[in-house]
Amino acid sequence: MSSRLNPYLSFDGDARQAMEYYQDVFGGELHLNTYGSIAQSGPEYADKIMHGMLETPSGFTLMGADHPPGMEFKPGNTCSVSLSGDDEDELRGYWEKLSSGSQVSVPLERQMWGDVFGMCTDRFGVSWMVDIGTSQG
Asked: What Pfam families does the annotation carry (predicted)?
């Protein structure tokens, strides 16, 4: 297997809901392991997600988990997940699902550099950027 880089998101107790939501957005196979399955947490964390991985038909891999017990959860704005390419229908479909009920900071529209681009923050606090490349010749 070759090396790959993929996002790993931390959640504050709602990783299951978030990962199931992303499976609805992108499709694919979702694997979830709880802290209880490894018996390394108290009962309040038994059903929380220790590791989740979504592998999609488009070749995306998105990982996520509930923040580990005993560690402080510090959400921030230093990271965004970027989706880009030239398959307009596919990317617009992702945008419609991700932006529905989210905080849209940049509407999906043509930008000064020529691409169609949008940014939103979903209900789980994850920032998404969608860039649809254009072929201008």
From this structure: Glyoxalase (PF00903)
Instruction: Choose among 100, 89, 18, 131: nearest CA to 8.
Output: 18
- Name the nearest CA neighbour of 75 among 87, 66, 85, 83: 66
Domains and CATH numbers, the chain: 8-66 (3.10.180.10), 81-132 (3.10.180.10)
- Residues 57-75: tens digit of each pLDDT: 999 999 999 988 778 888 7
